[in-house]
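New to this. Please check both lines:
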Amino acid sequence: MLRSFWAAGRRAAPVPTLAVCVAVGVVGGAVLVGRPPGIGAAVVGMLVCAAAVPVVVRRRRFGDLALLVLGAALLAVVAVRTAGWVVALCVVAACWVAVVATASARTAPSAVLAPVTAALGAVRAVPWVRHGAGAALGGRRHEAVTVLRSAAITVGLLVVFGALFASADRVFASLVPQVHVDRLPGQVLVGALVTLGAVTAAHLAIAPPVWSRARLPQAPAARRVEWLVPIVALDALVVTFVAVQAVALLGDPERALPSGVTYAEYARQGFAQLVVATALTLVVVGVAARRAPRTDARDRLVVRVALGVLCVATLGVVASALRRLDLYVDVFGLTRLRLLVAVAELVMGAVLVLVLVAGARGSGRWFPRAAVWVVASAVLGLAIANPDAVIVRHNLETQTSSTIDLLYLQGLSDDAAPVIDRLEEPMRSCLLYRRGEQADDDPLSWAWGRQLARDLVPTVPTPSWCPTPGEVW
């Protein structure tokens, strides 16, 4: 398997592909260094993915093309949101989706191991580029080296003497393009990395790894009793827990909760454990499905019922965890971490639903791609919802004035500015003061959230009061 993968690196890269990748790297080095993330960074990310699009279209891999479009939508968030955690989450999800699409990953192991595929693909792409460049130059390698050496000397002389003359005369300096020599090393490094990313995407699309479609070998089936007893026991335990939760969280709190325990304390004590339990259930279902006996129709029916009950009961655990979080947020407020964990729990619930559908249909070949879509769409939906603005709106609407943490709200990104602008003084000026300062006239660093905050700056007076650490509103 690995031998055939590395063998693809001994081929020669097409010259047009090399030219496109180098051009993308040059643009990336010029755009990404020395300016905040914005529309320029989003365009560079899309160009890296675009290097693989011609191959995907030519081979009619429309499912992979749809995933690349989803990755482009995730990258577009960089030009819309300014919250660093949201942008980072979308970029990571976009890279993951792009590798799954370019490598044409079809199985769960290949989708999970997409970062490993990307790393190996980058190593494999280096000889592919070298052979392509060698084939393009042919017997003209000496002439190419001479041209490159001459161009490097020319650029060096122009930069040095241009800087001297520009510092000596302001009129001449106004005619010379601004060159930030201190950025040059970073631009070269970033440009090389962007070029490598584009080359890797193009090569993975041309020669997908063999393991993209490889499935785990069928595990030996366990005996019915050996398999069924632990699953039925776990079913009973989960169903009992969900029944207790239904009484505790939906019934009369005076009877359900232990003496002296508030709803918030009750929610805080078990939320993390329920999230872990949900994740472990997915693992248990995956392992149990591989070892389940399927010799006849009766075995298949038993497998569907036992695992179906476990999945449905675990959906109750998901509901319980979200209910606990809701109770906790009502008292202590919404934060980025709590919102992110809630989205993760919802994603695991959606994956459980996909497992139920796969079990009902008796086939799960489509499941890995569907799970990728669920996760990536959840990240995109989170970005579209504007989480920092959601946090401000929720905390100001549900909490009392004595519990609002204004210092935390001040630390949120410029994305929250439109919601803050609707507040009364002095809270409005306190939370809007000094926002939008990173916005400038550079069109490549433009971001919608940053621009909205900048437009509000002229209307924000110097706040008459703002909280200090330990002080509340």
Notes: The longest helix spans residues 297-332. The mean pLDDT is 82. The CA atoms of residues 245 and 320 lie 6 Å apart. The chain has 22 helices and no strands.
